Protein backbone atom coordinates (compact mmCIF):
# COMPACT_ATOMS: atom_id res chain seq x y z
CA UNK A 1 0.00 0.00 0.00
CA UNK A 2 2.76 2.47 0.94
CA UNK A 3 5.51 3.56 -1.44
CA UNK A 4 8.95 1.98 -1.59
CA UNK A 5 10.21 5.51 -0.84
CA UNK A 6 9.11 5.28 2.77
CA UNK A 7 9.92 1.61 3.28
CA UNK A 8 13.52 2.32 4.33
CA UNK A 9 12.72 5.28 6.53
CA UNK A 10 12.50 5.07 10.28
CA UNK A 11 11.06 7.40 12.87
CA UNK A 12 13.77 9.32 14.66
CA UNK A 13 15.20 7.13 17.44
CA UNK A 14 15.46 10.11 19.73
CA UNK A 15 11.66 10.28 19.88
CA UNK A 16 11.67 6.88 21.66
CA UNK A 17 14.02 8.29 24.27
CA UNK A 18 11.89 11.37 24.81
CA UNK A 19 8.89 9.06 25.32
CA UNK A 20 10.74 6.90 27.89
CA UNK A 21 11.98 9.95 29.80
CA UNK A 22 8.45 11.34 29.87
CA UNK A 23 7.07 8.03 31.19
CA UNK A 24 9.71 7.80 33.96
CA UNK A 25 9.10 11.41 34.99
CA UNK A 26 5.36 10.76 35.08
CA UNK A 27 6.14 8.01 37.60
CA UNK A 28 8.03 10.54 39.70
CA UNK A 29 11.57 9.48 38.73
CA UNK A 30 14.08 12.35 38.60
CA UNK A 31 15.74 11.74 35.21
CA UNK A 32 18.94 13.56 34.28
CA UNK A 33 18.57 14.21 30.58
CA UNK A 34 21.72 14.44 28.46
CA UNK A 35 19.98 13.29 25.28
CA UNK A 36 19.05 16.78 24.13
CA UNK A 37 20.12 18.16 20.77
CA UNK A 38 19.44 21.81 21.46
CA UNK A 39 21.03 24.51 23.65
CA UNK A 40 19.32 24.89 27.01
CA UNK A 41 19.45 28.70 26.61
CA UNK A 42 16.27 30.62 25.87
CA UNK A 43 16.08 32.54 22.59
CA UNK A 44 17.56 36.00 23.23
CA UNK A 45 15.17 38.80 24.21
CA UNK A 46 15.83 40.79 21.01
CA UNK A 47 14.77 37.76 18.95
CA UNK A 48 11.57 37.31 20.98
CA UNK A 49 10.83 41.05 20.71
CA UNK A 50 11.22 40.94 16.93
CA UNK A 51 8.83 37.98 16.76
CA UNK A 52 6.24 39.80 18.91
CA UNK A 53 6.61 42.95 16.84
CA UNK A 54 6.06 40.97 13.63
CA UNK A 55 2.79 39.61 15.03
CA UNK A 56 1.64 43.01 16.37
CA UNK A 57 2.32 44.69 13.03
CA UNK A 58 0.41 41.97 11.16
CA UNK A 59 3.46 40.59 9.43
CA UNK A 60 1.56 37.33 9.29
CA UNK A 61 1.03 36.64 5.61
CA UNK A 62 2.83 34.53 3.01
CA UNK A 63 6.26 35.86 2.12
CA UNK A 64 8.42 35.26 -0.94
CA UNK A 65 8.97 31.48 -1.05
CA UNK A 66 12.76 31.88 -0.76
CA UNK A 67 12.37 34.12 2.30
CA UNK A 68 12.04 37.89 2.81
CA UNK A 69 14.69 39.81 0.97
CA UNK A 70 16.00 41.55 4.16
CA UNK A 71 16.70 38.16 5.70
CA UNK A 72 18.44 36.84 2.59
CA UNK A 73 20.50 40.06 2.47
CA UNK A 74 21.46 39.62 6.12
CA UNK A 75 22.50 36.02 5.39
CA UNK A 76 24.59 37.24 2.45
CA UNK A 77 26.33 39.73 4.79
CA UNK A 78 26.86 37.03 7.43
CA UNK A 79 28.43 34.67 4.88
CA UNK A 80 30.75 37.49 3.81
CA UNK A 81 31.63 38.58 7.36
CA UNK A 82 32.18 35.15 8.91
CA UNK A 83 33.16 32.97 5.99
CA UNK A 84 34.57 35.35 3.33
CA UNK A 85 32.07 33.85 0.90
CA UNK A 86 30.31 35.99 -1.70
CA UNK A 87 26.69 35.27 -2.54
CA UNK A 88 23.72 37.23 -3.84
CA UNK A 89 20.24 36.96 -2.27
CA UNK A 90 19.20 34.87 -5.30
CA UNK A 91 21.60 32.17 -4.16
CA UNK A 92 19.95 31.85 -0.74
CA UNK A 93 16.85 29.79 0.07
CA UNK A 94 15.43 30.16 3.57
CA UNK A 95 13.54 27.06 4.71
CA UNK A 96 11.89 25.59 7.77
CA UNK A 97 15.13 24.77 9.56
CA UNK A 98 18.47 23.48 8.33
CA UNK A 99 16.96 20.01 8.04
CA UNK A 100 14.47 21.30 5.48
CA UNK A 101 17.25 23.04 3.55
CA UNK A 102 19.20 19.75 3.50
CA UNK A 103 16.12 17.90 2.23
CA UNK A 104 15.64 20.51 -0.52
CA UNK A 105 19.28 20.19 -1.57
CA UNK A 106 19.08 16.37 -1.62
CA UNK A 107 15.94 16.46 -3.77
CA UNK A 108 17.57 19.00 -6.08
CA UNK A 109 20.83 17.05 -6.55
CA UNK A 110 20.29 13.33 -5.93
CA UNK A 111 18.37 10.85 -8.03
CA UNK A 112 17.99 7.06 -8.11
CA UNK A 113 21.33 5.42 -8.86
CA UNK A 114 23.36 8.27 -7.39
CA UNK A 115 25.71 7.63 -4.50
CA UNK A 116 26.11 10.00 -1.57
CA UNK A 117 29.16 9.69 0.66
CA UNK A 118 28.51 10.37 4.35
CA UNK A 119 31.25 10.24 7.00
CA UNK A 120 30.25 7.85 9.76
CA UNK A 121 29.23 8.27 12.63
CA UNK A 122 26.74 10.80 11.28
CA UNK A 123 23.67 12.77 12.19
CA UNK A 124 20.74 10.41 11.87
CA UNK A 125 18.73 12.34 9.28
CA UNK A 126 21.39 12.39 6.53
CA UNK A 127 21.03 8.79 5.29
CA UNK A 128 17.26 8.95 5.60
CA UNK A 129 17.10 12.07 3.43
CA UNK A 130 19.33 10.45 0.78
CA UNK A 131 17.03 7.42 0.72
CA UNK A 132 14.00 9.68 0.47
CA UNK A 133 15.57 11.23 -2.63
CA UNK A 134 16.11 7.71 -4.03
CA UNK A 135 19.92 7.74 -3.72
CA UNK A 136 22.29 5.17 -2.23
CA UNK A 137 24.42 5.97 0.79
CA UNK A 138 28.10 5.08 0.96
CA UNK A 139 29.36 5.46 4.51
CA UNK A 140 32.90 6.71 5.00
CA UNK A 141 34.16 5.30 8.32
CA UNK A 142 36.09 7.48 10.74
CA UNK A 143 37.96 6.28 13.82
CA UNK A 144 37.95 7.25 17.46
CA UNK A 145 41.78 7.28 17.26
CA UNK A 146 41.55 10.02 14.60
CA UNK A 147 39.12 12.01 16.75
CA UNK A 148 36.49 10.97 14.18
CA UNK A 149 38.06 13.21 11.52
CA UNK A 150 37.53 11.86 8.02
CA UNK A 151 40.76 11.03 6.23
CA UNK A 152 41.29 12.17 2.64
CA UNK A 153 42.41 8.65 1.63
CA UNK A 154 39.13 7.18 2.92
CA UNK A 155 37.21 9.67 0.82
CA UNK A 156 39.39 8.97 -2.22
CA UNK A 157 38.83 5.22 -1.90
CA UNK A 158 35.04 5.65 -1.89
CA UNK A 159 34.58 8.23 -4.66
CA UNK A 160 33.31 6.66 -7.90
CA UNK A 161 31.79 8.04 -11.10
CA UNK A 162 28.42 7.39 -9.41
CA UNK A 163 29.21 9.71 -6.47
CA UNK A 164 26.87 12.67 -6.83
CA UNK A 165 27.32 14.26 -3.45
CA UNK A 166 29.69 14.25 -0.48
CA UNK A 167 28.31 15.36 2.85
CA UNK A 168 30.48 17.19 5.35
CA UNK A 169 29.42 18.30 8.83
CA UNK A 170 31.81 20.40 10.87
CA UNK A 171 31.48 20.95 13.81
CA UNK A 172 29.96 17.47 13.90
CA UNK A 173 26.94 16.04 15.60
CA UNK A 174 27.43 13.48 17.18
CA UNK A 175 31.24 13.37 17.43
CA UNK A 176 32.15 16.99 18.28
CA UNK A 177 34.91 16.87 15.63
CA UNK A 178 35.88 20.13 13.89
CA UNK A 179 37.65 19.87 10.53
CA UNK A 180 40.83 21.94 10.51
CA UNK A 181 42.11 23.92 7.54
CA UNK A 182 44.65 21.15 6.87
CA UNK A 183 41.84 18.54 6.94
CA UNK A 184 39.77 20.61 4.54
CA UNK A 185 42.68 21.24 2.19
CA UNK A 186 43.46 17.54 1.89
CA UNK A 187 39.78 16.70 1.35
CA UNK A 188 39.55 19.51 -1.23
CA UNK A 189 42.49 18.11 -3.16
CA UNK A 190 40.69 14.78 -3.50
CA UNK A 191 37.35 16.42 -4.29
CA UNK A 192 38.82 18.62 -7.03
CA UNK A 193 39.82 15.50 -8.96
CA UNK A 194 36.18 14.33 -9.05
CA UNK A 195 32.90 15.90 -10.09
CA UNK A 196 30.84 15.30 -6.96
CA UNK A 197 28.84 18.06 -5.28
CA UNK A 198 29.45 18.92 -1.65
CA UNK A 199 26.77 19.53 0.96
CA UNK A 200 28.33 21.27 3.93
CA UNK A 201 26.21 21.31 7.07
CA UNK A 202 27.61 24.18 9.17
CA UNK A 203 24.78 24.49 11.68
CA UNK A 204 27.18 24.33 14.69
CA UNK A 205 29.58 26.87 13.11
CA UNK A 206 29.90 29.16 16.15
CA UNK A 207 30.31 26.39 18.70
CA UNK A 208 34.04 25.65 18.41
CA UNK A 209 36.49 25.32 21.27
CA UNK A 210 40.12 26.28 21.95
CA UNK A 211 39.94 29.07 19.35
CA UNK A 212 39.53 26.63 16.43
CA UNK A 213 38.66 28.27 13.13
CA UNK A 214 35.68 27.33 11.02
CA UNK A 215 36.56 26.24 7.51
CA UNK A 216 33.93 25.75 4.82
CA UNK A 217 34.63 23.64 1.73
CA UNK A 218 33.10 26.51 -0.28
CA UNK A 219 36.24 28.52 0.61
CA UNK A 220 38.51 25.99 -1.06
CA UNK A 221 39.72 26.85 -4.57
CA UNK A 222 37.52 25.25 -7.22
CA UNK A 223 34.83 24.04 -4.81
CA UNK A 224 32.57 27.10 -4.36
CA UNK A 225 30.90 26.28 -7.69
CA UNK A 226 29.73 22.89 -6.46
CA UNK A 227 29.12 23.37 -2.78
CA UNK A 228 25.82 23.99 -1.03
CA UNK A 229 26.35 25.51 2.41
CA UNK A 230 23.68 24.75 5.00
CA UNK A 231 23.28 26.86 8.11
CA UNK A 232 20.57 28.41 10.27
CA UNK A 233 19.66 29.99 13.57
CA UNK A 234 18.61 26.89 15.55
CA UNK A 235 21.90 26.30 17.34
CA UNK A 236 23.54 29.73 16.90
CA UNK A 237 20.74 31.83 18.40
CA UNK A 238 19.02 29.04 20.35
CA UNK A 239 16.00 29.20 18.06
CA UNK A 240 15.25 25.52 17.44
CA UNK A 241 11.48 25.90 17.62
CA UNK A 242 11.29 28.90 15.30
CA UNK A 243 12.33 26.64 12.41
CA UNK A 244 14.57 28.81 10.25
CA UNK A 245 17.53 27.48 8.29
CA UNK A 246 18.96 28.13 4.86
CA UNK A 247 20.95 26.83 1.94
CA UNK A 248 23.44 28.90 -0.08
CA UNK A 249 24.79 27.65 -3.37
CA UNK A 250 25.25 28.23 -7.08
CA UNK A 251 22.20 29.87 -8.64
CA UNK A 252 20.87 26.85 -10.59
CA UNK A 253 20.86 24.74 -7.41
CA UNK A 254 19.30 27.52 -5.34
CA UNK A 255 16.61 27.91 -8.04
CA UNK A 256 15.93 24.17 -7.94
CA UNK A 257 15.72 24.18 -4.14
CA UNK A 258 13.31 27.09 -4.36
CA UNK A 259 11.08 25.30 -6.91
CA UNK A 260 10.84 22.28 -4.60
CA UNK A 261 10.15 24.40 -1.54
CA UNK A 262 7.61 26.62 -3.31
CA UNK A 263 5.54 23.54 -4.20
CA UNK A 264 5.90 21.78 -0.88
CA UNK A 265 5.72 24.38 1.88
CA UNK A 266 5.88 27.90 0.37
CA UNK A 267 7.94 30.20 2.59
CA UNK A 268 9.06 29.55 6.14
CA UNK A 269 6.96 31.20 8.87
CA UNK A 270 6.83 35.01 8.36
CA UNK A 271 7.12 35.77 12.09
CA UNK A 272 10.09 33.45 12.52
CA UNK A 273 11.85 35.07 9.58
CA UNK A 274 11.66 38.47 11.31
CA UNK A 275 12.95 36.92 14.53
CA UNK A 276 15.82 35.20 12.68
CA UNK A 277 16.65 38.50 10.98
CA UNK A 278 17.00 40.16 14.41
CA UNK A 279 19.28 37.32 15.52
CA UNK A 280 21.57 37.37 12.50
CA UNK A 281 21.73 41.20 12.46
CA UNK A 282 22.72 41.24 16.14
CA UNK A 283 26.03 39.55 15.32
CA UNK A 284 28.08 37.20 17.43
CA UNK A 285 27.71 38.30 21.09
CA UNK A 286 24.98 35.78 21.84
CA UNK A 287 26.57 32.79 20.04
CA UNK A 288 29.91 33.62 21.65
CA UNK A 289 28.43 33.68 25.14
CA UNK A 290 26.78 30.29 24.52
CA UNK A 291 30.09 28.95 23.25
CA UNK A 292 31.78 30.05 26.49
CA UNK A 293 29.14 28.18 28.50
CA UNK A 294 29.64 25.02 26.46
CA UNK A 295 33.40 25.26 26.55
CA UNK A 296 33.40 25.48 30.37
CA UNK A 297 31.03 22.56 30.58
CA UNK A 298 33.09 20.51 28.17
CA UNK A 299 35.82 20.51 30.80
CA UNK A 300 33.42 19.00 33.38
CA UNK A 301 32.44 16.27 30.96
CA UNK A 302 35.74 15.50 29.30
CA UNK A 303 37.95 15.36 32.39
CA UNK A 304 35.65 12.83 34.05
CA UNK A 305 35.24 10.69 30.93
CA UNK A 306 38.94 10.76 30.01
CA UNK A 307 39.82 9.45 33.48
CA UNK A 308 37.49 6.45 33.04
CA UNK A 309 39.42 3.32 32.04
CA UNK A 310 36.51 1.70 30.20
CA UNK A 311 36.11 4.58 27.72
CA UNK A 312 37.94 5.94 24.70
CA UNK A 313 36.92 9.53 24.15
CA UNK A 314 38.29 12.24 21.88
CA UNK A 315 38.17 15.73 23.40
CA UNK A 316 35.13 17.47 21.88
CA UNK A 317 36.35 20.22 19.55
CA UNK A 318 32.97 21.81 18.94
CA UNK A 319 29.15 21.49 19.12
CA UNK A 320 27.97 20.30 22.56
CA UNK A 321 28.47 16.56 22.44
CA UNK A 322 31.00 14.05 23.74
CA UNK A 323 31.04 10.74 21.89
CA UNK A 324 32.87 8.08 23.88
CA UNK A 325 33.45 4.58 22.66
CA UNK A 326 32.95 1.76 25.17
CA UNK A 327 35.20 -1.01 23.82
CA UNK A 328 34.21 -3.48 26.57
CA UNK A 329 30.50 -3.18 25.87
CA UNK A 330 30.00 -6.09 23.49
CA UNK A 331 28.56 -9.07 25.35
CA UNK A 332 29.22 -7.53 28.76
CA UNK A 333 26.76 -7.89 31.59
CA UNK A 334 25.73 -5.22 34.04
CA UNK A 335 23.74 -6.07 37.17
CA UNK A 336 22.75 -9.36 35.52
CA UNK A 337 21.62 -7.77 32.24
CA UNK A 338 23.39 -8.67 28.99
CA UNK A 339 24.51 -5.58 27.04
CA UNK A 340 24.60 -6.31 23.31
CA UNK A 341 25.03 -2.79 22.00
CA UNK A 342 24.80 0.89 22.89
CA UNK A 343 21.00 0.85 22.93
CA UNK A 344 21.04 -1.86 25.64
CA UNK A 345 23.60 0.22 27.52
CA UNK A 346 21.56 3.44 27.34
CA UNK A 347 18.39 1.51 28.37
CA UNK A 348 20.29 0.13 31.35
CA UNK A 349 21.63 3.56 32.19
CA UNK A 350 18.16 5.04 32.11
CA UNK A 351 16.56 2.23 34.14
CA UNK A 352 19.28 1.89 36.78
CA UNK A 353 20.92 5.33 36.94
CA UNK A 354 18.13 7.54 35.58
CA UNK A 355 20.39 9.18 33.01
CA UNK A 356 19.11 9.62 29.44
CA UNK A 357 21.60 9.50 26.56
CA UNK A 358 21.30 8.73 22.86
CA UNK A 359 22.90 5.40 21.90
CA UNK A 360 25.64 5.57 19.27
CA UNK A 361 23.62 3.12 17.16
CA UNK A 362 21.36 6.09 16.27
CA UNK A 363 24.42 7.57 14.53
CA UNK A 364 25.71 4.26 13.12
CA UNK A 365 28.25 3.75 15.91
CA UNK A 366 26.85 0.89 18.00
CA UNK A 367 29.80 0.85 20.44
CA UNK A 368 29.51 4.56 21.31
CA UNK A 369 27.18 6.76 23.34
CA UNK A 370 26.37 10.44 22.77
CA UNK A 371 26.50 12.70 25.79
CA UNK A 372 25.00 16.13 25.23
CA UNK A 373 26.24 18.83 27.57
CA UNK A 374 23.38 21.19 26.81
CA UNK A 375 22.02 21.13 30.34
CA UNK A 376 22.75 22.85 33.66
CA UNK A 377 26.27 22.35 35.09
CA UNK A 378 25.15 20.38 38.18
CA UNK A 379 22.98 18.05 36.08
CA UNK A 380 25.76 17.43 33.57
CA UNK A 381 28.28 16.81 36.34
CA UNK A 382 26.09 14.35 38.25
CA UNK A 383 24.95 12.55 35.07
CA UNK A 384 28.51 12.04 33.81
CA UNK A 385 29.51 10.67 37.22
CA UNK A 386 26.71 8.11 36.91
CA UNK A 387 27.76 7.20 33.33
CA UNK A 388 31.24 6.44 34.62
CA UNK A 389 29.80 4.31 37.44
CA UNK A 390 27.65 2.44 34.94
CA UNK A 391 30.66 1.73 32.72
CA UNK A 392 32.47 0.48 35.82
CA UNK A 393 29.60 -2.00 36.41
CA UNK A 394 30.21 -3.75 33.10
CA UNK A 395 31.64 -7.22 33.64
C1 LIG B 1 24.07 18.25 12.29
C2 LIG B 1 22.71 18.85 12.30
N1 LIG B 1 22.25 19.41 11.17
C3 LIG B 1 21.02 19.96 11.12
C4 LIG B 1 20.21 19.97 12.23
C5 LIG B 1 18.82 20.53 12.11
O1 LIG B 1 18.77 21.87 12.35
P1 LIG B 1 17.36 22.64 12.28
O2 LIG B 1 16.77 22.59 13.65
O3 LIG B 1 17.72 24.02 11.85
O4 LIG B 1 16.51 21.93 11.27
C6 LIG B 1 20.65 19.41 13.43
C7 LIG B 1 19.76 19.38 14.62
O5 LIG B 1 19.95 18.66 15.56
C8 LIG B 1 21.94 18.84 13.47
O6 LIG B 1 22.42 18.30 14.59
Describe the protein's architecture and organization:
Helices cover 41% and strands 14% of the residues. It is α/β, with parallel strands linked by helices. The protein folds into two domains: 4-42 and 286-393, Aspartate Aminotransferase, domain 1 (Alpha-Beta Complex), CATH 3.90.1150; 45-282, Aspartate Aminotransferase, domain 2 (3-Layer(aba) Sandwich), CATH 3.40.640. The strands form four sheets. It has a seven-stranded mixed β-sheet, sandwiched between helices. It starts with a helix and ends with a helix.
Q: List low-confidence stretches.
A: none
As a percent range, the share of helical residues equals: 40-55%
How many beta-strand segments? Answer: 14
Ligands (ions, cofactors included): pyridoxal-5'-phosphate
Main sheet specs: 7 strands, mixed
Rg over alpha carbons? 21 Å
Instruction: Please tell me the overall pLDDT.
Output: 96
The percent range for strand residues is 5-15%
Q: Indicate the CATH class of the largest domain.
A: Alpha Beta
Order of strands across the main sheet: 2-8-7-6-5-3-4
How would the blueprint of this fold be written?
Elements: H1 4-7, H2 13-26, E1 32-33, H3 45-56, H4 69-83, E2 92-95, H5 98-109, E3 115-120, H6 125-132, E4 136-141, H7 152-158, E5 163-169, H8 181-192, E6 197-201, E7 227-232, E8 245-248, H9 251-264, H10 270-282, H11 285-306, E9 321-322, E10 332-334, E11 337-339, H12 342-353, E12 355-356, E13 358-359, E14 369-372, H13 377-393
Bound molecules: pyridoxal-5'-phosphate (PLP).
